[in-house]
Specification:
By secondary structure, this protein is mostly helical. 69% of the residues lie in helices and 0% in strands. The longest helix has 47 residues, at 41-87.
């Protein structure tokens, strides 16, 4: 029973996990024919420019998420070490 209370307290007191940001992958421009590319040059140029902007934002988002997860892993490791140290002191009947 005491273990259940401790686990419940750990769940309530533990730090709230940061919300993961969803990183939207960029959508590459669709291949086209040389004739269409010629006729719609500016539109295709805009599509490619948009793709490279989106790809840059996407990789920055992935980098930020990697940093966040790494920090979360460090925090969780510290919490787990504290749990192991504390639980080593508990008697088997607790």
């Amino acid at each position: 029973m005491k273990r259940l209370v401790i686990l419940a307290m750990l769940a309530v007191v533990s730090p709230v996990a940061a919300c993961a940001e969803w990183c939207d992958p960029p959508i590459a421009p669709t291949p086209t024919t040389p004739e269409l590319a010629h006729d719609f040059r500016e539109e295709f140029k805009d599509e490619f420019d948009q793709y490279f902007r989106d790809a840059s934002l996407y990789t920055a988002c992935l980098d930020a998420e990697r940093v966040r997860v790494f920090q979360e892993m460090q925090n969780t490791t510290q919490r787990y070490e504290r749990f192991l140290n504390d639980s080593a002191k508990w008697s088997p009947s607790e």
